[in-house]
Design a protein that fits this description.
The chain has 468 residues and is α/β, with parallel strands linked by helices. It folds into 3 domains: 70 residues, Winged helix-like DNA-binding domain superfamily/Winged helix DNA-binding domain (Arc Repressor Mutant, subunit A, Orthogonal Bundle); 128 residues, Aspartate Aminotransferase, domain 1, CATH 3.90.1150; 202 residues, Aspartate Aminotransferase, domain 2 (3-Layer(aba) Sandwich), CATH 3.40.640. The protein is built from 16 helices and 15 strands. The strands form 3 sheets. It has an 8-stranded mixed beta sheet with strand order 4-11-10-9-8-5-6-7, with helices on both faces. The chain has a 4-stranded antiparallel beta sheet with strand order 12-13-15-14, covered by helices on one side. β12 and β13 form a beta hairpin. α1 crosses α3, α6 crosses α13 and α15 crosses α16. The longest helix is centred in the last third of the chain and has 24 residues.
Length: 468
């Protein structure tokens, strides 16, 4: 903590110290629970007598601004006004994208999208592996790590992709990132497509759409049907696009797999026009019906596909860990961008996941998770069918879509459900254009409750019936 004192002022030094710390607490610069230096350490820092600082601390304690104890040290006291200010400071501007982001990622809540089930994660095992990795990180030489990521993790990912996703790549083509968003940002920087046009799925991931806009690209919404993104529509209405961002494995959020015919047509378009394709493999192997389709990158012979994956849905988003598979011709460009603009997370988390994969835990975890999610999906559909017609319920990957009449206020329904600890995602928020926009609620399967499922579905049905 840095404090300034004026030795020429008439105000005693102890009172100056008290005033500075009190002002920092009142302004929120020092939050409740923040630890203050001991009065001996602060005295040495300021070059004043220890008794001077001790007097200031005693006055702050008397005013209930700080709490001192032998075990915990000196902490800023919990105060209602400070908590209110902290909440106000964290709240985004109304109507801003940050408010939308915070709203869509808050939780934990029942039916929340994009979050894995907490009960399927082997917490004890991961904690042990992570602790070992942290010790290895601390004991290593204090040098900058490889900006592409730890070689061991890149090698494990390359092996996994070859078996599970059909991608033939070398570890040198893999760059570790801080999740999907960081991977998309790295790709946009490396490709240098500012001012160009990009195809996006409509409906599609809102955060990816916003990322393209922040990269100064214009977006061309392309409708999605039972076969995935409509390539012919894109060729007719935006043939000059230089990028396509797609979720071919399981379209987000509607769930269809991109057909082979459309995959080949998309690859032909990219090769002929010099465009790039970002493949968002957001659910990886978590295909609950049958075997997951091979990745689009496995069919790429012209080197136009940038494959992006992450461990957010398969392990936990708290890791902030993902990866990019870069075409061979772009390896140097992406490595330079990673080194200068987008370094990967620290070595410890990478080493831990590398060992988790190397020892076979990752594939076993995926198998157990898929079985658990399949059972959760079936139970959820059973409970929802007590309230809604079966033709209004669609299983879409790791979500169940409850179709609502066009124009139904799905966002208002989702916000009301949050009061009951539920947060289904409003389908309308995933659309970029008003044309063809549909209403619905996307209920995450992974966060579907086990004990409170029937009651939660009853409450959700009551909310929907009040609006429709």
């Amino acid at each position: 903590m840095e404090l300034s004192i004026d030795r020429s002022a008439r105000i005693p030094l102890a009172e100056q110290i008290r005033q500075r710390i009190a002002a920092a607490i009142e302004s929120g610069a020092l939050e409740p629970g923040a630890r203050l230096p001991s009065w001996q350490d602060l005295a040495a820092q300021l070059g004043v007598a220890r008794g001077t600082v001790r007097t200031a601390y005693e006055r702050l304690d008397a005013a209930q601004l700080i709490v001192a104890s032998r075990a915990a040290g000196t902490l800023v006291a919990q105060r209602p006004r400070a908590r209110a200010r902290a909440r106000e400071a964290q709240r985004a501007d109304p109507g801003s994208f940050l408010e939308t982001y915070q709203e869509m990622t808050q939780g934990p809540a029942f039916f929340q999208m994009g979050v894995p089930a907490a009960e399927t994660l082997p917490k004890t095992l991961l904690a042990r592996i992570r602790a070992h990795a942290i010790r290895a990180e601390i004991g290593a030489a204090p040098i900058y790590p490889d900006p592409r990521g730890e070689p061991g993790l890149r090698q494990e990912i390359a092996g996994y992709l070859a078996v599970a996703r059909g991608i033939d790549c070398s570890p040198s083509q893999i760059i570790i990132t801080g999740g999907y968003g960081a991977g998309l940002g790295l790709a946009l920087r490396a490709l240098g497509l500012e001012g160009q046009k990009a195809w996006i799925e409509d409906p599609g991931f809102p955060f990816a759409r916003k990322g393209l806009e922040l990269a100064r690209m214009s977006v061309a919404p392309i409708p999605v049907d039972a076969g995935g993104i409509d390539i012919d529509h894109g060729l007719r209405h935006a043939p000059d696009a230089k990028l396509a961002v797609v979720t071919p494995g399981q379209q987000a959020p509607l769930g269809p797999t991109l057909t082979l015919e459309r995959r080949l047509k998309l690859l032909d378009w990219a090769a002929a026009s010099g465009a790039w394709i970002v493949e968002d493999d957001y659910l990886s192997e978590l295909q609950l019906t049958g075997r997951a389709a091979p990745a689009l990158a496995s069919l790429d012979r012209a080197g136009r596909v940038i494959h992006i994956g992450s461990f957010s849905k398969t392990i936990t988003p708290a890791l902030r860990l993902g990866f990019i598979v870069v075409p061979a011709g772009l390896m140097a460009t992406f490595a330079e961008a990673a080194a200068c603009l987008a370094p990967p997370p620290g070595p410890a988390v990478q080493l831990a996941i590398a060992r988790f994969m190397q020892e076979g835990h990752y594939l076993r975890h995926l198998r157990r998770t898929k079985r658990a999610y399949a059972a959760k999906r079936d139970d959820l559909l059973t409970q929802l069918r007590r309230h809604f017609d079966a033709d209004h319920l669609i299983a879409t990957g790791l979500a169940v879509l409850l179709r609502l009449p066009d124009g139904a206020p799905d966002l208002a329904m989702a916000r009301e459900a949050l009061a009951f600890g539920m947060f289904p995602a409003p389908l309308s928020a995933w659309y970029a254009s008003a044309r063809g926009r549909r209403s619905g609620l996307l209920l995450g399967v992974a966060t579907s409750p086990a004990r409170e499922l029937a009651r939660s579905c009853d409450r959700l049905a009551d909310i929907v019936k009040r609006f429709v």
